[in-house]
Design brief:
The protein contains no helices and eleven strands. The protein has 155 residues and is mainly beta. A six-stranded mixed β-sheet has the order 1-2-3-4-5-6, with no helix packed on it. The termini are far apart.
């Protein structure tokens, strides 16, 4: 990109997989209590690698290291939360909390009319919606399952 320049370059002159360079964030003028950091780790050829965002949760005078990674972005764009080796565009090791009423997870398809969804309703019921947004399966909070009558039968 025209005009793009390096403003700050951190390097580790070693050239092997697993080598890192990074930034620590702390509250004192030394590495004591530097409880957060961003680390680049070389993981493959041509100095490609992963970017790790780390926080050290220990109540001691230690500092954050790559092993404290909470989120990782790999060289090919995969994001891991709770894992340093994501195998999909988003890999989460742990629970996901959707906050708010009528939250949903949408799935991208080739359908031009919309995306199928799994929706958590405000009353804690679950709905499975097709690409048109029609409820095709409803599971109540107490476990009762309802399948609406569809005008067009499923194949």
């Amino acid at each position: 990109v025209s005009g793009e320049r390096q403003q700050l370059l951190l390097v580790n002159r070693n050239d092997t997989d697993g080598d890192t360079s990074g930034i620590l964030f702390g509250v004192l003028d030394n590495s004591t209590y530097a409880k957060a950091g961003i680390f680049f780790e070389r993981t493959t050829l041509q100095a490609r690698g992963s970017l790790h965002f780390a926080t050290d949760g220990s109540s001691d005078s230690g500092h954050a290291t790559k092993s404290d990674a909470r989120m990782t972005i790999t060289y090919d764009g995969k994001v891991g939360i709770g894992t340093t080796a994501p195998d999909e565009k988003l890999s989460v090791n742990g629970n996901i909390f959707l906050q708010g009423n009528d939250d949903y997870i949408a799935f991208n398809t080739s359908a031009s009319s919309g995306h199928p969804k799994i929706k958590m309703n405000s009353d804690a019921d679950f709905s499975f919606l097709n690409t048109a947004g029609t409820n095709i399966l409803h599971i109540e909070n107490g476990g009762k399952k309802e399948t609406p009558i569809l005008a067009t039968p499923l194949d």
